[in-house]
Amino acid sequence: MIDDQHHITTPEGVPLTLDLAGPVPRALAYFTDLAIRIVVYIIAAVLFGLLGGLGNGLMLILIFLLEWFYPVWFEVMRHGQTPGKKSFGMAVVREDGTPVDFSASLVRNLLRTADQFPLLYLTGFVTMLLDSRFRRLGDLAAGTLVVYSRTVPARRAGQPAHTLPPDWVTSIQDRQLLLTFLERSPGLSPARRGELARLAFPELTPEDAEDRLRRTALHVQGGN
Amino acid sequence: MRQQQFETRYASLWQQIEQTLARLEKPGERHATPPALTAAEFPAAYRRLCHHLALARQRGYSLDLVDQLNALVLRGHRQLYQYRPPLLPRLLYFVREGFPRAVRAQWRWHLASALAFVLSLAFAWILVATQPDMAYSVLGESMTLSLEDMYGDSTLSDGRDSGDDLTMFGYYIYNNIGIAFRTFAGGLAFGIGALFVMVFNGGFFGAAAGHIVHIGASDNFFTFVVAHGAPELTAIVLAGGAGLKLGVAVLAPGPVSRLAALRHAARATVPVMYGVFFMLLLAAFIEAFWSPRDLPATVKYTVGGLSWALVALYLFAGGRRREPR
Fold first, then answer.
1. What is the ipTM of this complex?
2. Shortest CA distance from B14: residue in chain A
3. Where are the domains of chain A?
């Protein structure tokens, strides 16, 4: 069991896997959002500075709104992603994987104050380390998770080649391993590919082992 | 079936689902062509996709394919099972019935919070009334002097123009609503944070009032605070009560787990916090634009009394329904 994944079952009875985001990327996303807010404050201070008393009032209202409702707005309107979270490919979802609603988002963001206690999110950080799903206090109360919402790149089709049936009875794990090898090969160095292939065929040279493994894998994949 | 056959056979369906989801995820954009799947077709297509994911896992297809299908199912799941009720009817229901009911449903916590506030207020007031010098140790010297400065004058709106009113409006929103939200969150620390805010603010208000009565500026002070005090003090007490409920849920969860108790408490107290927000907004408005007006004391006390009566009537009687006959 990989412990940074959370498994849910959909009403259709299919298990779904959510990749949980840990404290460090979440802190980076927080600082990104903080930087965005600071830039907005600086711009607003310059603009509102021209308006005198009215400007002061508007500035304070702006600070209030951004400090408390900036995350709520983006989480509800932008599929659980503040700009900071989006830049790190993360999103807030409810524990069943559905989008957060206004109430849940408000709870997790109001309780930010409790997580910030005594300073720099110490309480939240400790809670995240103790919890199996990296939830801070606000997430626990609201029933939300922060997950990665990567878009999976399109997969390229396997090139036709002479395939070779496996000369052993393959298990599901074997077949999965072969297919994974095939799909990840472009990202591996030739030496590493040979090294991995020799685990399967120690009697062959790295080049021959790789060729044989590739053709076996292509057979499993279903090429001709 | 081998993986490649499987992929070739169903790729077009996956593409249709992908395209439809991309449309659904960006509802604002306009497109020349309609989405590949209509709303009526989507659930069936989604269920086939779920089936494909289960098959891909069962048959040991490559992890990349499983990941791809998993991501697609997750997106479909979000679209199909999201819950977005319309806002306006819920808001109307909330103002008419939901908020006062939520407050009454947790009256014990709000009563406890109010007691903490009122008792420390009375204690500090009596202390300052009997030993006037105590004001300086309770409030601090600079605070005491600035209070005397603010209310010692005979006129209230002296040197305050509309720009200042707007500044103060912003300040009351920023400061008071921030305090209420932090009080709520502080309650999570076993209720201590919420209680502390109640006792501290009660003591502060009591000492300030006692001192101002002592220096003989009570009319200035009470005509200023009486109207906005009703929504403002009530809202702070309610925020404290909501925070207390959170803290006690963690401290004494009863027959359920602490986590379940916390969730339940959070769900039950969120309506109260919505209400607190609106009440403080109203209070900031009154405090910035009505309270500093220099009007006869009888007018201000009448409006203030009305304000308290309305808040009390709303919270006690709002949203009660007659028993069906």
1. 0.80
2. A154
3. 5-148, 172-221
